Amino acid sequence: MENNKINKDPMTVNEARFVSLAPHIRSNDTVRKIMLDVIIALVPAMIASVYFFGTRAIALLAVCIGACVFTELITQKCLKKTVQIADLSAVVTGILIALNMPESFPLWMAAFGSVFAILVVKECFGGIGFNFMNPALAARLVLMTSWPKQITDYISPEILKQGITTSSAAVDGISFATPLQIIASGDVTNLPSMGDMFMGNIGGVIGETSAIALLIGFVYLVARKVITWEIPVIYVATTAVCLFVLGIPMELIPYELLAGGLLLGAIFMATDYTTNPINKKGRIIFALGCGILTAVIRVKASLPEGVSYAICLMNLATPLIDKLTVSSAYGEAK
Questions:
Q1: How far apart are the C-alpha atoms of 230 and 211, rounded to whole Å?
Q2: Which residue ranges in the chain fall short of pLDDT 70?
Q3: CATH code for 31-324?
Q4: Backbone phi, then psi, for 205, in 5-degree steps?
Q5: Which residues sit opposite 205 in a β-bridge?
Q6: Quick one: pLDDT at residue 99?
Q7: 256, 240 in Cβ contact below 8 A?
Q8: At which residues is FMN phosphoryl threonine found (predicted)?
Q9: What would the pLDDT profile of 177-200 be if each residue is shown by its tens digit?
Q10: How far apart are CA 308 and CA 262, in angstroms?
Q11: What's the predicted TM-score (pTM) here?
Q12: Rounded to 5 degrees, what angle do the CA atoms 271, 275, 277 make?
């Protein structure tokens, strides 16, 4: 490109200033197409959540999606920005927030978390592509801090099948320990079968229990080239190795991997384009960090789960990782 042409056209100057290093990859993907693929990949998990947790799962999904989309619409109108709700990113955030809630979680609290995710974490930092951490996970952390009891009140699908409603379970004090809570207690005789672990017939947040549904979504996203395998696979593998090193018996490792939010977080939130590193080397470091932190939190901290904290901490480290792993221009002297 000739210098005089650049100087005459301010738009060309800006374009030239932000051109990335070669090779330059052209793609027909749009935000809407990518988000639609993510929604499709989440459909099995949503179906499983409704199957195991009933209409309450539908209510959580509807409230979180509605709150996210409405907040984005109002915020962008108030800021006189182009309304972008049609790109479906707010819908994806709402789905992920809902899937990170237990069946008994109050709907107004879920709506509060959804508003926080869009208003504070996303729009206050410039909108899609500028958020410093995954909005859905940020919302979960705020809700965990604000209402720790409510967000850890898990109801077993078996109890729900007996006709006990959320309200009556709360009155009677009926709750169900997740596999991670059982392992943390030291009494592993009450662990569910591996079949129940794979299918999702266990206690937990509505979107994390069915491993098979989440893995179907993973295969779809990889096949559609929306994500690559590196972050989810390295994340889960690193968690397994670190858990073993930290003293978790080998026979309990499968329970640690299938229980909790590990698969949900590794597949759908650690792979967020905005908040993970831009190159392959950086993504490997990111995934290793997520796995190490998850294992350390689960074994050494007071919480049986650590996925949300691990991913958010690594989100904050992403700019540093990008700086340390930036590629050199072709032909540049080392």
A1: 19
A2: 1-29, 156, 158-176, 328-334
A3: 1.10.3430
A4: -70, 155
A5: 102
A6: 95
A7: yes
A8: 178
A9: 778 877 877 777 778 888 888 888
A10: 9
A11: 0.84
A12: 80
Q: How far does the chain reach from its first CA to its final CA, in angstroms? A: 25
Whose structure tokens read 């540093």? 320
Domain ranges of the chain: 31-324
Q: Where do the DSSP E strands lie in the chain?
A: none
d(Cα 179, Cα 311) in Å, to the nearest integer?
Answer: 21
pLDDT tens digits, 135-144: 999 999 999 9
As to burial, measured by CB atoms within 10 angstroms (0-12 exposed, 13-18 middle, 19+ buried), residue 100 is buried
Is the Cα dihedral 155, 46, 197, 254 positive or negative? negative
In the numeric block, which tokens belong to residue 206?
């509505």
* CA distances to 51, 183, 218, 322 from 200, in Å: 10, 17, 16, 37
